[in-house]
Structures are given as C-alpha cells and as structure tokens.
Amino acid sequence: MPQFEILGPRNPLFTGRAIELNAIHQYFSHPPLEDRLVPRIYPLTGPSGIGKTQIALEYAHRHRQEYHALFWVQATETFFIEKDFREILTCVAFPVNVATLRPRELIASVHSWLKSNPDWLIIFDGITSAAALTALPKEGSGNILLTACDDLPLNAKT
Ligand SMILES: Nc1ncnc2c1ncn2[C@@H]1O[C@H](COP(=O)(O)OP(=O)(O)O)[C@@H](O)[C@H]1O
Ligand SMILES: [Mg+2]
C-alpha cells in the first residue's frame, strides 16, 4: 500500500489493453540501459479518445502496492497542475505554507520531495503543451507515466 496516494477510482468497466499495460510494466521494471538513470518516463501518446487516460489509471491501480507514493496530476492546464501539486504537498505534509507558494516554488517543492523520497509513481495525464513539461521531475528515484497528444515535443524536457 502506498504511504501517500492521490488517485481517482478504478474504472470497473476497464477491459483489454494487456499489451500496453505489460509494456509499461516491462519498461519500469527492466528499463533499457540508457534509461537506468532516474526518473524514467513512459509516454502514452495518440489521438484523443483512444484510451490513454484509462490505461494510465488502470496501470496505477494494478501496481499501486509496488509504490511508496502515487500521485495523479491532471496536466491539461497549468492551473490543474498547480492545483494537483498543492494537493501533493498537502498529502506529504511538506513543511511549507502551500497556499502562498508561487508556481515556480510550488514546482520546486514537489520536485524536492520527489528527489528525496524513493519508489514513487507520478502520472501526468493529458499534457497538451511543452510548457507543462517543466512540471516533470528531473531527479529522483521514481517513475513518470504521462499521456499526451501525438505531436508533443517530448524530447524538449527542459
Ligand atoms: N480499456 C478500456 N476499457 C473500457 N473503456 C475504455 C477503455 N479505454 C477507453 N475507454 C472508454 O473510452 C473513453 C475515452 O478513453 P480515454 O482513456 O479518456 O482516452 P484518451 O485519454 O486517449 O483521450 C473512456 O472515458 C472510456 O469510457
Ligand atoms: Mg486522456
């Protein structure tokens, strides 16, 4: 059981997708050599409505017991990322006044927690802009699962 968890309910109607779910698990448990540095990022991309969010949600539920912390972030708008990041800091009792943090400090605080705590999974669902990629943690021993539209420049992890 994760000690810290922010995750919506499982979809009882979820079906199929064994290939995708196995591929995610395979990547996170046996990453290719060049990705041994952490955090690891697994992107689910494709057109809207194809089932990316559902795969991510199902993956999180199936493997939640493997993680110390599990956070779902709605990444469609900067506003939602900030809202969910505040929730993460509250969830882990991060010693700051969450209400007064500016966006940059908010992101830095979440990244700081992720850097100093192991075995987390963070899901960024519905990345629509390169700007949202700045919210991805760059350091720490964990896994990032993200969903995004096809044409996102995922290499632009600045
Ligand atoms: N594996 C699945 N099992 C059952 N329903 C699914 C599955 N994948 C998608 N759906 C249905 O299709 C809808 C769209 O899927 P979603 O994951 O939101 O697509 P995307 O994130 O790619 O836009 C979901 O709300 C759900 O009703
Ligand atoms: Mg989606």
Q: What can you tell me about this protein's structure?
A:
The chain has helices spanning 18-29, 52-63, 78-91, 103-116, and strands spanning 4-6, 40-45, 69-74, 120-127, 142-148. The mean pLDDT is 91. The relative contact order is 0.21. It is globular. α1 packs across α2 (52-63) and α3 (78-91) packs across α4 (103-116). It has a five-stranded parallel β-sheet. The chain contains four helices and five strands. It has a single domain, classed as 3-Layer(aba) Sandwich (Rossmann fold), CATH 3.40.50.300. The chain is an alpha/beta fold and 158 residues long. The structure holds adenosine-5'-diphosphate and magnesium ion. Adenosine-5'-diphosphate binds next to α2. The site of magnesium ion has 5 residues, from α2 and β4.
Keywords:
binds adenosine-5'-diphosphate, Rossmann fold, single chain, binds magnesium ion, 4 helices, alpha/beta, 5-stranded parallel beta sheet, 158 residues
**According to CATH, what is the topology?**
Rossmann fold
Total number of helices: 4
Q: Would you identify the CATH architecture?
A: 3-Layer(aba) Sandwich
What's the rounded overall pLDDT mean?
91
Radius of gyration: 15 Å
- What is the count of distinct domains? 1
What's the total number of strands? 5
Hetero groups in this structure are: adenosine-5'-diphosphate, magnesium ion
What name goes with the CATH superfamily? P-loop containing nucleotide triphosphate hydrolases
Relative strand content? 15-25%
Unreliable stretches covering 5 or more consecutive residues = none
The largest sheet, given as strand count, sense and whether it forms a barrel, is: 5 strands, parallel
CATH first level: which class? Alpha Beta
- What is the helix content? 25-40%
Shape, please? Answer: globular
Strand order of the largest sheet: 1-3-4-5-2
Helix and strand element order: EHEHEHHEE
How far the N terminus sits from the C terminus, by CA atoms, comes to 33 Å
Structural class: alpha/beta
